[in-house]
Amino acid sequence: MRKRSWMSVLAAGLVLTLALTGCGNSGGSVGSEDGIKVGVLFSTSGQTALGEQSMANATLLAIDEINADGGVNGKKLVPIQEDYASDPSMAATKAKKLLMQDQVAAIIGAYTSASRQAVLPIVEQNDGLLVYPMQYEGEEYSDNIIYTGPVPNQGLQMFVPWLLENEGKKFFMIGSDYVFPVETNKQVKALLEMNGGSVVGEEYVPMGQAEFASLINKIKEAKPDIVFSTLVAESVSAFYKQFANYGLTSEDIVIASTTPTESDLAAMGGEAAKGHITVQPYFQTVDTPENKSFIESYQKKYGDEPVNTQMESAYYSVYLLKEALAKTEDYSNTKQLIANFAELELEAPQGKIQVDAKNHHTKLNAYIGIANDQAQFDIVETFEPISPEPWSKLIFPDHEEPWNQ
């Protein structure tokens, strides 16, 4: 009898523990009386937390704005936030918890390709939805992912010819040693070959590397016109600062990249950044009414920090989800919800965007910006929204598109 009583207490304690797991979620169905549950899956600790925390902030800001405006069909969005500590295997574990235990309608998040690829089989196996707001290398399609960040063709196909015309023909390529830089640089090299440029060096460094003395010496010896950088995370500001400390400026050799944000410029200092060039779907200096409102709202809630393309992507991803949910009768019907993203248009802070009905990626704008000494980008070239090519036609001209199979 005493043993049975102890087991009952243990079981009750386990149930209580599970009920309290996950930011106070109270359980229940996707569209319960409490509202529509949305997973917010970003690292607030670990190596990539600096970038991911601001994306989580922008996601929660959009949810707050939507709820203040009446929610979705009269229901509030209920965020359930999880920190996967910059660990892809933890991202998979947290995604499974959000889908199976919390029963969220969708997850917004993941950061690196490793974290996305860890979450991908989880959403596919459990009939879930991931809205992925990051720039990435492409070469992927899933029925269960809506990709709202850019793929390489949405910047490179305009950027590389522009650089060749305005900055020079000789490229030295550097990047962090993982899939995104390597695959991006394949497209850069194809564009150089098509447009009369050349590669005078190519180097990759471990993720998080902060010492670049030997690499900068190699760059000086090669005498390129342009250093094309696909460094990520803290390596970005470290490289730019050391480049400047070696006495090199954009007047000597310009650094061109798709990755630095206003947050990176602030970290490296305006003088180290000045004159170097970036292409992205969004800069804080984009002149639209939606952008002015976004910046004002974000800085009012979180303080006077720079706003960047990753934050903007997370922000408009929530609004795209809102529009898809508004057209969905049963919020637990993932297939119906995903189908309702097709051809969705939105006036985002960057300008008009649209979800491609077939490939689940998003048509986005492209801006070429030159960094100034105020840690902002002066926009020098603007391109209309560009259709995504997850498999670049430059590299994969005969690729059979999986969404047509």
TrEMBL record:
Question: Which UniProt keyword terms apply here?
Answer: Signal
- The signal peptide annotation in the UniProt record is 1-21
Q: PROSITE patterns in the record, alphabetically? A: PROKAR_LIPOPROTEIN
Name the Pfam families for this protein.
Peripla_BP_5 (PF13433)
- State if Flavoprotein is listed as a keyword: no
Please verify whether the record's keywords include Glycoprotein: no
By what name is this protein known? Transporter substrate-binding domain-containing protein
